[in-house]
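In this section we walk through a basic example: taking a raw amino acid sequence and producing a predicted 3D structure, encoded as discrete structure tokens. The instruction is simple. Fold the sequence below.
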Amino acid sequence: MLKKFNSIADKQHGYSYDSQAFDIHAPIDCHFRMYDTYGDGLCQHSPDWSVQLDHLADYLASLAQAMLADEELAQNCLFTFSRRPSVKAIEFAASVKFKAGEEKDWLKGRRWFSAKELKVSKAPSKEHDKRYEEVREIHDGSVNSIFRILVGEYSRGLEKYLTADAIRDWALAEDRGGLYMPMPAEFLKWTDDRDKAHQLRDAVEACKNIAESVRLRSATESLVENYRRSVAPKPEAAQAAPEPEAAHEETEATPPAA
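The resulting token sequence is shown next.
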């Protein structure tokens, strides 16, 4: 699916969401594309390229605007903006802490953890299990440690942002023992300008909200359909065919004897 849409702030460029695009060097997301228009509407006057950080806020705000008018585009972006770690995963990552008193013994105190299985183990066999990583000094329960555990090795920019965003929401939800986390764009060192960090946050939130509305609408349609089926009149059971009556032989009256 290829959808082109106008930029809100930059009339010299056009944007597109290309579900078939694959760019291993895309810094944000391989489906996020842009191209030159030279002010000529959506007419493409150059090859497209992956959206870079300097255009990300405008791209996402413009994408949100396009999704409001295009249900197919919104449906396709549902997964894109749902890649956030769960609260359970964040709490597990926060619990992974290096215990200097125990683990200073390299042979006896080593532990390994799996962010996918949400498990910590002392079993030596985990050293060679690719699902597990050794608990080290850098794992101290801080937001940096949590992020490092949860973000994938090959994650692109948007997934990193959504991961940082989820951790920040968790940290701010209640008292977390003094944990502090700046806005995701600042945490990721994408900018030190608070206004730009706010702009990007608002653009991401707009896309997340539309994606969530698509999910809720789909869930609602399913619930309504389930109810409709439950109250629909049941088809009347086919009436059983009446059993054939036993054949009665007609006996002729015997004529009286002469």
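Looking at the output, two observations stand out. The chain has two domains: 2-82+207-213, 87-191. The CA atoms of residues 70 and 215 lie 15 Å apart. In the next section we compare this with other chains.
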